[in-house]
Design brief:
Length: 127
Amino acid sequence: MSPPAPNRFRWAWWLLAYAALGLGIIGVAVPGLPTVPFVLLSAYAAARGSQRLHGWLLANRRFGPMIRDWQAHGAVGAGAKRAAIASMAVAAVVMLLTAPRIWMAATGISIMAVVAVWLWRRPEPPH
């Protein structure tokens, strides 16, 4: 882990950590809004801006193992991968049904497809 950021940026890291965590929590219930990347971003920012939040995230029974797997191995569990890709598939269908122009839906779906391929290719935790 890198050393804490200089004090002048600590507030920005703190703000990013809490904002990302909030989006990650909202992502649990909203299809298409991913949880895992926002929680990982929150942990990254918290390590630089809020040691208390970082410690809480690492100790959290839901988020802690996921964060530790990412920090140690760059790994994402199979269940998280499946949930993220299923969520993106639901979001893609919603986009196809509601987008005013097909190119708008195609743009979002293309981005989600790239993210899904990248995510699926991540290693899984060794345990």
